[in-house]
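In response to reviewer comment 3 from the previous cycle, which asked for concrete evidence that the modeling workflow produces usable outputs, we include below a single protein chain processed end to end. The sequence was submitted unchanged, and the resulting structure tokens are shown without manual editing.
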Amino acid sequence: MVNLKKCLLGELVAVTRGASLSGNYYSTKGEYIRLTCGNFDYRNNCFKENTSKDNLFYTGVFKAEFLLEKGDIITPLTEQAMGLLGTTARIPESGKYIQSQDIALVKCKVGKIDPTFCYYLISSRLVRYQLSVAAQQTKIRHTSPDKIKDCTVWIPELDDQKAIGRLLASLDEKIQLNKRINDNLRASRVQSQTQFELCRGTAVNADVSPNLSMLDHSLTMARARHAA
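The workflow returned the following structure tokens.
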């Protein structure tokens, strides 16, 4: 039987807000990309590249602490789409992404919580519900690092956390693999259909074109016989 311990997230993790980045330095090209809420795939609870904007690069000065490392856990502080609060994502590459003020960085306290378990815990229904209830009720709802740390959770021992985290990560990998297979199959079907249409069009044109003059002659003769 797994023993669960009740605690606040703030006892397990540190949560910090990102940098305030001046719009004067937004650019369509550069070395560093500023993170936005568009980097969260909230349906699949994972990181995605933001393709909704083209000025995502940042050319201004910022503190080194806001340049994130591969594997860092982030969560949004602004709900720009329903259900976004509580979504988690992992940074895919070091030295590229800047943590902006709408993004919270979650750092696990060593020996308190397993990072993979934490990744799934924050995106659980339990935490999402608490964040939703506590969110500021404006047109676009907001949360804060303090509100995230104030969420109540129940966690097992560290070894059990690691086992649960590995299991959930393995399931996610299988889901993503199946998704890639399905996407490839759909792309293959579209390509095959396109090739079929092109081949059919070529075949039809090849069959009809040489016979057009004969067809016109036959129609002319038929009208002449009818007139007679």
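Residues 67 and 205 are 59 Å apart (CA to CA). We consider this sufficient to address the reviewer's concern, and the full set will be provided in the supplementary archive.
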